[in-house]
Amino acid sequence: MDIKVDENSVIVFDLDDTIYNEIDYLKSAYTAIAKKLDPEQGEILFSQMFSMYRNKENVFEYLTTHFNVKKETLIELYRNHIPSISPFKGVFPLFNAIKNQGGKLALITDGRSKTQRTKLAALGIEEYFDKIIISEEIGSEKPDENNYLAIEKTFKNHRYCYIADNVRKDFISPNKLGWDSIGLIDNGLNIHSDSYLYFTKNCLPKRFVRSIENIKII
């Protein structure tokens, strides 16, 4: 799929399950927690935790019961660990191609500031973005138009394209504002797997692609 990019273009990305798989962040956090709670047999505990998660069991409730640890401590460990995550194949070539054509790069993501910025640092992509919008920092979450209007206010009289994965909330405001939009199809690992429930005109992106590698800059 081709995207025309020039100095009047702003290509805006979601983060989780768009630039990397969020399940990898969860696995990274579970690994850190398991090592903290059971340094000698952390891999066994991680395996148990991940199996429980996949079966929709309450992992933190189990840990608080069996390891005499407070839920608040587990949440802090989860949110503040240094993640081991990597961008999807094709992310860096795509970013560089956009920059080489004179385009601007921006990010709109929901989440806590510290957590999302730690992810960006771990992925090695923060320096690419000309503007970063994080819900906690702006005080609103997608699909609130304010998150998208903040991009328009920063880059006036540009063309905007949003690349994201979650049809439940990602494309409602871009559709209202007349943005172009591209939806990444779930690769089978997305945290949110219920997109079929939101296949309505106001929720769907203009186009879908199977992977970042399928997006070409012209």
What is the structural class? alpha/beta
The oligomeric status of these chains comes to single chain
Describe the strand arrangement of the main beta sheet, using strand numbers: 4-3-2-5-6-7
Structurally, the number of domains stands at 2
Residue ranges: pLDDT <50 for 5 or more in a row?
A: none
Which term fits the overall shape?
elongated
- CATH homology superfamily name of the largest domain: HAD superfamily/HAD-like
For the record, the CATH class of the largest domain is: Alpha Beta
What is the β-strand count?
A: 8
CATH architecture of the largest domain: 3-Layer(aba) Sandwich
Strand content: 15-25%
Separation of termini?
Answer: 10 Å
Assign a percent range to the helix content.
Answer: 40-55%
SSE pattern, N- to C-terminal: EEHHHHHEHEHHEHEEE
Provide the gyration radius in Å: 19 Å
Taking the sheet with the most strands, its summary is:
6 strands, parallel
- Mean pLDDT, rounded to whole units? 97
How many H/I helical runs?
9
CATH fold type of the largest domain: Rossmann fold
Question: How are the SSEs ordered, and which strands pair?
Answer:
Blueprint: E1 2-3, E2 9-13, H1 22-37, H2 42-54, H3 59-67, H4 71-80, H5 91-100, E3 104-109, H6 113-123, E4 131-134, H7 135-138, H8 145-154, E5 159-164, H9 172-177, E6 180-184, E7 207-209, E8 216-217
Parallel strand pairs: 1-8, 2-3, 2-5, 3-4, 5-6, 6-7
Provide an overview of this structure:
The chain is built from nine helices and eight strands. The protein is α/β, with parallel strands linked by helices and 218 residues long. It has two domains: 2-20 and 87-217, Rossmann fold (3-Layer(aba) Sandwich); 23-80. The strands form two sheets. The chain has a six-stranded parallel sheet. A two-stranded parallel ribbon has the order 1-8. Strand 3, helix 6 (113-123) and strand 4 (131-134) form a beta-alpha-beta unit. Helix 1 (22-37) crosses helix 2 and helix 1 (22-37) packs across helix 4. The longest helix has 16 residues, at 22-37. It is elongated and about 55 Å long. The mean pLDDT is 97.
